[in-house]
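Please check our next protein.
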Amino acid sequence: MIDQIPALLAGDRRVLARMITYIENDGEEKEDLLRELHHHTGKGYVIGITGSPGAGKSSLTDRVITELRKEGHKVGVIAVDPTSPFSGGAILGDRIRMNEHYLDKGVFIRSMGTRGSLGGLSRATKEVIKVLDAFGCDFIIVETVGVGQSELEIMTAADTTVVVLTPGAGDSIQAIKAGIMEIADIFVVNKADLPGVDRVVTEIEVMLDLGGYKKGDQAWRPPVKKTVSTSGTGVDILVKEIKVHRQQMEKTGRLDLERQRRLRAEVSEIIEVRIKEMIRDQLGRSGQWDELLEGVISRTVDPYTAAHKILKEELWKRSEP
């Protein structure tokens, strides 16, 4: 697969599709592939679109793609669908709604299952973002499965996070409960042709005021925009607002800082995964650890002492020449 990187960089869509599948299936050379691709990333701008089920995220994403394509941008889309409990694959509802873009060579859409990830974003999703970045996508849109405490993980992947709400569904209260106020860079009240839209806008503005977001400050205050995704009303304004946020992030240096923070977090995550794998492997092979765990169960050893001993001895062994 690594030998196909030049074809990917040259814009071969078939290679892109195969490479994404390879990463999803955790291929043997996946890490080597991602190592090589890392040098070709950092140019694509990632937009996260999240919101409660039925808010019209997929239809809105479809319209955003159209606006970006009008300007000639190359767009990659990752639609993070719930994983089917039967097949283990993604439920492809989002792709059906975006079918008009499938013949457009400037757009690449891929559905991915959450695969049990509590954050709504599987680890593979972040890796696929890198592949789309290396492929040359100017914008990479990640549409997530829904809003909740676990959806906060979109912050770890997106440069701009758009939270989609709808009138008449108690979304503003849900936003408070889920902590969505903290992750939204832009609020969108979709289905703005329905009654109650102005009330939702007002509630969000009040929550922003209570959250310390003052109008006129140099710091970014999440704007609240109204859209009707079925007709496309207001989507052009939303795209302009995304670009304004990007310009503000670049001007203040926050974009670079946030990307650096995410890269540091990625390294830490890889280290944590490796340590867990090392410990699991050792626990499976050594009876010594079984004895130690039995001591915890019988309460002759406390869990903290056991964990410290396991970590110390395992890491010491790994560090020996």
